[in-house]
From TrEMBL:
InterPro entries, per database record: GAF (IPR003018), GAF-like_dom_sf (IPR029016), PAS_4 (IPR013656)
Record flagged with keyword Coiled coil: yes
Coiled coil is among the record's keywords: yes
Protein name listed in UniProt: GAF domain-containing protein
The entry's keywords: Coiled coil
Every GAF domain range: 132-298
Coiled coil regions, renumbered to chain: 290-342
Length: 412
C-alpha cells in the first residue's frame, strides 16, 4: 500500500480536509468526504484540475501557493486563512488551517501536492461572536444610548450570519399593545416607517404574532403565509421573503419587544440560526431593561428635583409673607405713633388745616376726616391716610368732628 493510499485511509472519515493533487496543473487525484463537503458536495469529482473544480480560487492566492510549493519543493502552512467558497448566492467565507506538502517520486522529484487542513470557520465565528457579544455587554454596562446599542447589535448579527440576513428590533409600548421602531440598519426606511407602531396580535406578521404569543414565530415564505396577508405587498417592495421573529422578554416575563431576522429568499432556520436569535434576544432584553431602569432613575431624580424646587419656592414665599407682615407691623406701629402725636398736638389745634398722618414727609392734603382709637387718641387726615390707618392699625375708627377720642366718644 502506498503512502497516499494510507493517507486516504487515515483521512477517509476524518473531519480534516484531505486532497491529493498531481502534476503542475494540480489535478485532483483523490479527496476525502470532508474536502468535498467543504467545497460543496455538488462538485465531488476527481480527475479535474483544481482551478476548474474551484474557479473561485483564482485571485485568492491559493493556486499561486500551490505553484510555489510544486516549484520549490518547500511545504507551506497557513493559519486561519480566509477563503471564499462557491459563487453567487451560495458563496460563503470559510477559514482553514492547512498544509501544502510536496509529493515526491522514488527519485525525489516533486510530482504533486498533498493538501491537509482543518476548517476553523466555526471557531472563528465563535471567537467573533464572543468578541462582539462582550463588546455589546460593555456598551450596556457603560449605559450607552439604547438606539446605538441596538443598532450595533443588529449590524453585528448581520456580519456574523453565514447567509445574508437583515435584522430588526422593535420595542414594546408601555401597554404592550404596540411595537415601535428600535433598530433596523439594513431594512429600507419606508419599511421601518410603515411597521412603526404596529399592533401586537395573532396574525399580525411575524413580530406582532411573536409579541402576542410570547414565543418565536418562524415564517419561511412570506408570499404564502397568512400572517403576512396585510403586509405582503410591503414586504415585496422591501425585498424580503422570510422573517423569523423572537419575542424579547423581561425577567418577569413582560414584553420588551421583538427581535427579527429577515431573508431575501424563503428560508428554513437551522439550529445555529435559532441559537443566535436566542442569544441576541437575551442581550437585547438586558439592554432594554437597563435602559428602562435608567429612565426610571432619571424620572425619579427629576421628580425629586421638582419637589425640592417647589419646597424652595414655598420657603421663599413664606419668607416674603413674613417680611411683608413685618413691614406691615412696622407701618402700623409708625401710624399709631403718628396718631398719638397728632392727638397730642390736637389739644392746641382742634381742627388742623392739613393731614396729620403723613409721617416725616408730611402730607399737604386737606384734613377732612377725624379718626380715633381705643386709647383715646385722635387725629385728622386725608382720605388716603385715614384708609391706611384703618386697614393697618387695630381699633381705629372714624370719630365725629367734635370728639377727641374713644373716651370722649363714650362720655358724650
Amino acid at each position: 500500500m502506498t503512502v497516499d493510499e494510507d493517507l486516504r485511509t487515515l483521512f477517509g472519515q476524518s473531519i480534516a480536509v484531505f486532497a491529493s493533487l498531481s502534476g503542475p496543473a494540480h489535478v485532483v487525484e483523490a479527496a476525502n468526504p470532508a474536502f468535498f463537503a467543504a467545497i460543496g458536495d455538488g462538485r465531488a469529482r476527481t480527475g479535474v484540475k483544481l482551478a476548474e473544480l474551484m474557479p473561485e480560487l483564482a485571485g485568492q492566492g491559493f493556486l499561486d501557493l500551490l505553484d510555489r510549493v510544486y516549484r520549490t519543493g518547500e511545504p507551506y502552512t497557513g493559519r486561519d486563512a480566509p477563503v471564499v467558497l462557491g459563487d453567487g448566492p451560495q458563496a460563503r467565507e470559510a477559514f482553514f488551517d492547512f498544509t501544502y506538502e510536496p509529493r515526491r517520486d522514488a527519485a525525489g522529484e516533486v510530482i504533486g501536492i498533498r493538501v491537509i487542513g482543518v476548517e476553523t470557520t466555526q471557531v472563528k465565528h465563535a471567537q467573533r461572536l464572543m468578541a462582539e457579544h462582550r463588546a455589546l455587554l460593555e456598551e450596556i454596562a457603560r449605559q450607552a444610548p439604547l438606539a446605538d446599542t441596538l443598532d450595533g447589535m443588529a449590524r453585528c448579527i448581520e456580519g456574523l450570519a453565514p447567509h445574508e440576513v437583515l435584522v430588526s428590533v422593535l420595542l414594546a409600548d408601555e401597554d404592550g399593545r404596540h411595537l415601535r421602531h428600535g433598530a433596523a440598519p439594513s431594512l429600507p426606511a419606508f419599511y421601518n416607517e410603515a411597521i412603526d407602531g404596529i399592533a401586537t396580535g395573532e396574525g399580525v406578521g411575524s413580530c406582532g404574532t411573536a409579541a402576542h404569543r410570547r414565543e418565536p414565530v418562524i415564517v419561511t415564505d412570506i408570499a404564502t403565509d397568512p400572517f403576512w396577508a396585510d403586509f405582503r405587498d410591503l414586504a415585496g417592495r422591501a425585498g424580503v421573503a422570510a422573517c423569523w421573529s423572537t419575542p424579547i422578554l423581561a425577567r418577569d416575563g413582560s414584553l420588551l419587544g421583538t427581535f427579527a431576522m429577515y431573508h431575501r429568499t424563503p428560508r428554513v432556520p437551522q439550529d445555529a440560526d435559532l441559537a443566535l436569535a436566542r442569544v441576541f434576544a437575551g442581550t437585547a432584553a438586558l439592554a432594554i431593561e437597563r435602559h428602562h431602569g435608567e429612565q426610571a432613575r432619571q424620572a425619579a431624580e427629576e421628580r425629586a428635583e421638582a419637589a425640592r424646587a417647589e419646597l424652595a419656592k414655598a420657603i421663599r414665599a413664606e419668607r416674603e409673607l413674613r417680611a411683608d407682615a413685618e413691614e406691615r407691623a412696622t407701618a402700623a406701629a409708625q401710624l399709631a405713633d403718628r396718631l398719638r402725636a397728632a392727638a397730642a398736638a390736637q389739644a392746641a389745634a382742634p381742627h388742623p388745616e392739613h393731614c396729620q398722618l403723613g409721617g416725616r414727609a408730611g402730607c399737604t392734603e386737606p384734613a377732612e376726616i377725624k379718626i380715633a382709637d381705643s386709647w383715646g387718641d385722635a387725629a385728622w387726615g386725608c382720605p388716603a391716610h385715614v384708609e391706611e390707618a384703618i386697614l393697618n392699625v387695630r381699633s381705629v375708627f372714624i370719630a365725629s368732628e367734635e370728639l377727641g377720642g374713644l373716651a370722649a366718644y363714650r362720655a358724650r
